[in-house]
Amino acid sequence: MNQVRKADPNNKTVAENRKARFSYEVLDTVEAGLVLTGTEVKSLRQGQANIQDSYASVEGGEIWLINSYLPEYLQANRFNHEPRRRRKLLLNKREMAKLSQSIDREGMTLVPLKIYFNDQGRAKLLLAVGRGKKLHDKRETEKQRDWSREKGRLMKERG
Asked: What is its main location (predicted)?
């Protein structure tokens, strides 16, 4: 009935931007494919990618992931990739139009949340449409987080 799944090696998170939910108010998320070379995929499978300082931008009717870091694959020798190159995101036309309109009209930002491998073993990027939080919003988020921690401790003490 309720079978416990083994950790699927294909379906795993490679890189996560944990700071994004603190710095941005996430309004919508979209799953996008990535155009990668062979050595980039092998490097991703080793799990050493970083998307902390990266962002997505609409240029020429296409969406690009900029400033993401995928380290070089050591066994690739001279056929290696550039670690901080721009990577094209794969979305259908309707999704691209929707994202570009929200960026242009409403002043939103495209923030990558995580890179992972789906069930078919393809690298995917979870892309969020977000609005930057102001300082007082960040403080409020921190207060709520601290209070929920404290509430958990109090509940644990009292039983």
From this structure: cytoplasm
